[in-house]
Amino acid sequence: MPRLQDLVAFCDERTNRSQITDFPPAMNGLQAANSGKVTKIGAAVDAGLIPFEMAAAAGVDFLIVHHGMNWKSPMPLTGANYRKVRQLFDADIALYSSHLPLDLHPEIGNNAGIARRLGLSITDWFLPYEGNNIGAIVEQVPLRTILRQRIQELFPATFTAIEAGPEQPQRMGILSGSGQSAISALKSAGIDTFLTGELKQEHFNIAQEEGLNLYLGGHYCTEVFGVMALAEEAAQKFGLEWEFLPTNCPL
After folding, report:
1. Global confidence as pTM
2. Which CATH number goes with the domain that contains 126?
């Protein structure tokens, strides 16, 4: 049976955690310890009460999430926060969080996972944040009709399209989760087509004015790939079972 510290060390190294500066509340790495045993790995997008309850019911004792518990720190241990922490301790579940490291990783990251499932190859990166580029670029893009069909098939329940750009895209950007910070950088990066999780209403006007194709797959749905890839690799490394715990968030 692998030790908790071995799983944490593997995840830290695989995600290059120490080399990536994240938003301060992210607190990447081990957020809650357990008694030290690991028998089953779980993956979920969010560190919420329902995913914790699902993990407990599934026998998971090492849970990998993308969004950790501490986005609004300090976090008073009352109400839902208390119930979440209590659930982890009662079920002896260790919680490991990885945010930007699992967005930008070139192999197991969310952007890479999206590109791979769309049959696309990442050729470059853009949108620097604290020394790392967090957005992916694809230069060999299919016709818009083909691209749209592939994206809609990948994100059938959360798909939205704003097509004000070229029918034959020249350069495509991919940024999982929220794409608001990338919009102003698209033109300078030569990007005419952009896939992300969510945007704001104002970006409809910007797409028309700038001649952009914008595709939305949902914040949650574009960020399932990294946690699943890391959980699968960790499970293979240590000979454990793993399971994805979906909450089917529509946003």
Report:
1. 0.95
2. 3.40.1390.30
